[in-house]
Amino acid sequence: MRGFRLLPVRFRTAGPGVLAAVLLAGCGAPTVAPYMRPPAAPGDHRIEAPLAAAGSAWKILADPGRDADWPAAGEAYNEAVAAAFDDLRRAGSDWKKAAATTGTRLADPGPGDLDPALLGVVFPASKVDTRRLGERQLASGIGLPLVGWIEDELPLYDRARFPPPAGITATATAILRFDRGPTPVWQFRQPFNSELIRVGGVHHPLRSDWSAAHALYWEMSRLDRTTIQNVLLPQRLQRIEGIFFTRPPDPDRIPLVLVHGLKSSPDVFDRMINELIADGDIRSRYQLWVYSYPTGVPWGLAAARFRESFRAALAYAREEGCRHLDKTVVVAHSKGALITQASLRDPGDAVYSTFIKKPMDQLDVTPKERELLREVFLWEPLPCVRRAVFLAAPHRGSPLAEHSLAMLASRLIRLPKLLTVEIPDLLVRNAAALTDPDLVSAEESLRFRGRNIRLPTGIEALQPGRPLFQIVPNLPFRKGVHLHSVIGDRGRSDTPDSSDGVVPYWSSHLDGVDSELIVPSDHNVPKCPEAIQEVKRILLLNLREN
């Protein structure tokens, strides 16, 4: 959403329809930016010079005895390929016909190759502005780095499982080959699959841009424009809920799962991803999964949905032959860390018995409701997670959730039907089975007794006095999981009396973790350089120990 303005005075009196209209205005489908289109056709269209220059450089790069000339030949080759690719794009949208028009042809895509015909648009990676990510991560070598965009209306997107909302980005390097007959051949290699290219009898590194596709996704998708709606309109944002694979599942890579927090989206990890992907060991050994969810719902329910989505992703990854799922690492921020740590604990019947005094088989519930109660109160700890990294985690809540401004924001939240109709109806039917309505706030208790139940919002559920915060921190973690904490102190060096401005140290701290690092950051810990380096250290540690 671009350029929306928050109008709290109107929101206080507006109905949910007006609220939705204001917040969702401007969230239309992504459009193709001018820089993504082919360059304007030159007045005198000639391609012979770039092809000849690329062919001459190729001969040098293919000769093991001319290694001293490789650097200059590589620069000449890359420049010529860039010019030839511009001509290829200008020749039309049908890639095979365009190649024939320009005196080249397309290679049949093999393993590790990208078929440009399946993408909506392919263009040079250098056109993408990556400044939001920090330092641009480049790898020297030969070829022209490209990015592709697969919008959600294309067949390739429809065939994907667990695709990101709005579209998928692709990273490739264009190579113009001169070893497959008299006609130069275009090959589009995916550097994530192989970072080397064979030229004659020599293996050269591919020239790669690791940042461009990442930056392009945030520009083209809606995820980083929905942070307010994620809180206030959770029902409307369920379409972007779930675990998303940034690339097809890879049998040889370990899942790295990122989980964002309240009033946030996965873009909170944008700089962290950019730094991690620059490390060759992390890039070649991990595959990135991202969890997105409406943050306006209470964290107990959000955790149940996270576990459901996580298990579905694991099942699909197993179908695809992934062999290292038991080494999965979860990096979670704020509320995301809260739902992650709860999902790694074994509740036994402690949570259920705190709220409900009758066995489940004595409750007046439908099979669907019984399954919901099991997932919310009697969940099985998440399998496969080897390590979890908690960034600015409110394990015991946040005092800011009790602030008057937080309460104002909470009243604006439009909870989904599950929380406004279905669960309240379940509670009314089973009122005699509840341990004590006074477990909730005084206001809610009165409403309960009047049969007008109001469940807590995602903000209210973070208040430290809530019942779950008296129970969950005392539950045992699943055996075999390693835990790490990264906690901000705003650079004041006052731990244990510190706070990141949102979560105090007494809430973020966990006894018995494998490591705890205090960083000079506010609550936005995922963007802190020291925190990013700590996550990198933990990921490399996970590789060494496995």
Computed over alpha carbons, the radius of gyration is 27 Å
Instruction: Let me know the largest β-sheet.
Output: 7 strands, mixed
| Range of helix content | 25-40%
Indicate the proportion of strand residues. Answer: 15-25%
Tally of extended strands?
A: 16
Shape summary: elongated
Structural class: alpha/beta
Calculate the terminal CA-CA distance, rounded to whole Å. 42 Å
Mean pLDDT over the residues:
86
Continuous helix count:
20
How is the largest sheet built, in terms of strand order? 10-12-11-13-14-15-16
Query: Which stretches are poorly predicted, pLDDT < 50 over at least 5 residues?
Result: 1-29
Explain how this protein is built:
- The structure is a single chain.
- This protein has 20 helices and 16 strands.
- The two termini are 42 Å apart.
- It has helices at residues 8-11, 16-24, 48-61, 70-90, 95-101, 155-159, 212-220, 227-232, 270-276, 280-285, 299-319, 335-343, 350-355, 367-377, 404-411, 417-429, 442-449, 467-471, 505-508, 529-544, and strands at residues 105-106, 121-124, 138-139, 144-151, 167-177, 185-189, 196-199, 202-205, 208-209, 242-245, 254-259, 286-292, 328-333, 385-391, 482-488, 515-519.
- A hairpin with a 7-residue loop joins β5 (167-177) and β6.
- By secondary structure, it is an alpha/beta fold.
- The chain is elongated, with a radius of gyration of 27 Å.
- 35% of the residues lie in helices and 15% in strands.
- The strands form 4 sheets. It has a 7-stranded mixed sheet, with helices on both faces. It has a 5-stranded mixed sheet with strand order 1-6-5-4-2.
